[in-house]
Design brief:
Blueprint lengths: L2 H4 L6 E2 L5 H11 L3 E5 L5 E6 H8 L10 H4 L6 E3 L4 H11 L3 E6 L2 E7 H9 L7
């Protein structure tokens, strides 16, 4: 099975200058745990997670001038839509991440998460080794 067949085609993004509270609200609204950060041309420049935001927003004195670019992870790990699900699972394990940005023809076309892969296993569509 290919990543394209299991990914979520909706990529929710934010800009680097977004305030952490706005990013948190966007995650809550969409029921997701990560947002990909893109520049003004749509190029991925980072990723921010729920955990990253909770750490900042939960501090006793959250920095008012802080932006997502100040807390995001700049190394965006991607996978091709044409790669196999097993490749995605192995990459997530090696990189210790729970989701990957899916790329096709140098454009973001979706997101695949550990949860997506677990759903395939639970449904009997993907058999673990």
């Amino acid at each position: 099975m290919k990543v394209k067949e299991a990914m979520n085609p909706e990529v929710i993004t934010i800009s680097p200058d977004t305030k952490p509270i706005e990013a948190f609200e966007k995650m809550y609204k969409h029921g997701i745990r990560r947002l990909f950060v893109v520049d003004d041309k749509g190029k991925p420049v980072g990723v921010v997670s729920y955990t990253d935001l909770v750490g900042v927003l939960g501090s006793k004195k959250p920095e008012r001038k802080l932006k997502v670019e100040d807390i995001m992870v700049k190394d965006v790990i991607t996978i091709s839509a044409k790669d196999g699900i097993e490749d995605a699972a192995n990459l997530m394990l090696r990189a210790d991440v729970s989701g990957l940005l899916v790329i096709e023809d140098e454009k973001a076309v979706g997101v695949i998460t550990k949860t997506d892969i677990c759903r395939l296993v639970a449904a009997g569509i993907l058999v673990p080794i």
